[in-house]
UniProtKB/TrEMBL annotation:
<dbReference type="GO" id="GO:0007099">
    <property type="term" value="P:centriole replication"/>
</dbReference>
<dbReference type="GO" id="GO:0098536">
    <property type="term" value="C:deuterosome"/>
</dbReference>
<dbReference type="GO" id="GO:0098535">
    <property type="term" value="P:de novo centriole assembly involved in multi-ciliated epithelial cell differentiation"/>
</dbReference>
<keyword id="KW-0175">Coiled coil</keyword>
<dbReference type="GO" id="GO:0005737">
    <property type="term" value="C:cytoplasm"/>
</dbReference>
<protein>
    <submittedName>
        <fullName>Deuterosome assembly protein 1</fullName>
    </submittedName>
</protein>
<dbReference type="GO" id="GO:0005814">
    <property type="term" value="C:centriole"/>
</dbReference>
<feature type="coiled-coil region">
    <location>
        <begin position="71"/>
        <end position="126"/>
    </location>
</feature>
<keyword id="KW-0963">Cytoplasm</keyword>
Length: 169
């Protein structure tokens, strides 16, 4: 887009230089006309000169019209460019704020995850401790059960012996 503006600016400068040359040529032709006015063909030269000036003036007016249209187009393009830049700036700001929001959210979630990991580690440690305690209690209960069964067995044996001895007596 900048290249287009640069081309338009160069075209305007080129046409301005052309306009100055045309004015200079008009002045030169006018000077010639004054010199030639003493001659007999003065009328014909004046007509040619006027015709040439009229043509040059018409060409110049056409060029001026084109330049004005180009200038208007350039102004419109500048306005559009400014609108695009403003929109792009707003989009960049929106994107930055969204990134900041996401960074904050990620940071909060990371902190929450860290807290949960600590909680899980604590629970796992307590569970491991409880598991060891339960194993110890089970071992104790198994031993007590085995003793109980042994005592039960002895009791039955003694009871059986007692019954047998009573029968004998």
């Amino acid at each position: 887009m900048e290249a287009g503006f640069s081309e338009m600016r160069n075209e305007l400068q080129s046409r301005d230089a052309l306009w100055r040359r045309i004015q200079l040529e008009c002045q030169q032709l006018h000077t010639e006309l004054l010199k030639i006015s003493e001659y007999k063909d003065m009328q014909e030269i004046q007509i040619k000169h006027q015709s040439s000036c009229v043509q040059l003036t018409e060409q110049l007016e056409n060029k001026n019209t084109e330049l004005l249209l180009l200038a208007q187009s350039q102004e419109h393009q500048r306005e559009e460019l400014n609108k695009i830049r403003n929109h792009l700036y707003r989009e960049e700001q929106s994107h930055r704020s969204e990134q900041e929001r996401m960074k904050t959210e990620i940071s909060d979630l990371t902190e929450e995850l860290h807290q949960k990991e600590i909680t899980i580690a604590t629970i796992m440690e307590k569970a491991s401790l409880l598991e060891r305690q339960l194993k110890m209690e089970l071992e104790i209960k198994d031993k007590l059960l085995a003793k109980q069964q042994l005592l039960d067995f002895r009791y039955r044996v003694i009871k059986s012996e007692n019954t047998h001895l009573k029968e004998m007596v």
